Every structure is written in C-alpha cells, then in structure tokens.
Amino acid sequence: MASDKKTPSTSALEWIAAGLGLLAILFVGAVIGREALTAEATQLPVLEVRATRIVPNATGFVVEFEVINQASGTAAAVEVEGQLGAETSSATLDYVAGNANTKGGLFFRQDPRGQKLELRALGFQTP
C-alpha cells in the first residue's frame, strides 16, 4: 500500500523570508554591477609625506613620518627619502591604499630639530 502522508505546505512566513532574501541579493548585485560599469579609470596615487614626530634613540634620531595618499589609486613599494643637510635616509613602504595613510620612520645621526628636513616620495609601483 502506498502511504498517505501529506507533505507540509510552505508557510506564508517562509515565502516572505524567501522574497526578502531574493530582493536583497538582487539589490547587492545591482549595486556591484553599477559600480563595475560606472567606475572611473584607475587613478594614479597622489602621495604626500609629512614628519609626525622626532624621537632620540641609541644611535641618533628617528623621524617618524606619514605618507598620505590623496587619490583613489593604490601605491606599492613606496620609496620615501629624507634629507638632512648632507645626510640622507630612505625607507620602503610595502603598501599605501587609496585615500589612506601609512606610517614609517627614517634614521638620522644628526638631530633634525632646528634643521631643514626634506621628506619626499621617490616612487612607487602599481600593484
């Protein structure tokens, strides 16, 4: 004999939840699609280097700096150079995201306070 079991029907609450889930997925897909179609061409990074703090250490001084990327383009392997009179120091930052900042430090033997310290980004790679 065949069994006479009834299959339970789907409740209205389940249909509402499924409909809301479908709407959420469609909305997210539309937003991602719109961003992909209307995104501007990749911008080059615009890097500004600022000294934030000077700290004495056992071998001289550390100039802490911040690299600020003012554009949406990402920069990798950012070379930063600091010049203090005849003394030069450099550092490489792995990554500076678009519209973000990254910190680092440069070592000097002389005290940079009261002297002309020049900081600049020398170059970068596009990731």
Can you describe what's shown?
By secondary structure, the chain is an alpha+beta fold. The protein folds into 2 domains: 10-39; 47-125, Immunoglobulin-like (Sandwich). The chain has 1 helix and 6 strands; from the N terminus they run H-E-E-E-E-E-E. It has one helix at residues 12-38; strands at residues 47-57, 60-69, 75-84, 87-96, 101-108, 117-125. The longest helix has 27 residues, at 12-38. The model has no long low-confidence stretch (mean pLDDT 91).
List the helices and strands and how they pair.
Elements lengths: L11 H27 L8 E11 L2 E10 L5 E10 L2 E10 L4 E8 L8 E9 L2
Antiparallel strand pairs: 1-2, 2-5, 3-4, 3-6
Protein name: TIGR02588 family protein
Keywords: Membrane, Transmembrane, Transmembrane helix
Organism: Sphingomonas psychrotolerans
Rounded radius of gyration (Å): 28 Å
The total of helices stands at 1
Sum up the overall morphology in one term.
elongated
Chain oligomer state: single chain
CATH class of the largest domain: Mainly Beta
* Euclidean distance between termini CA atoms: 69 Å
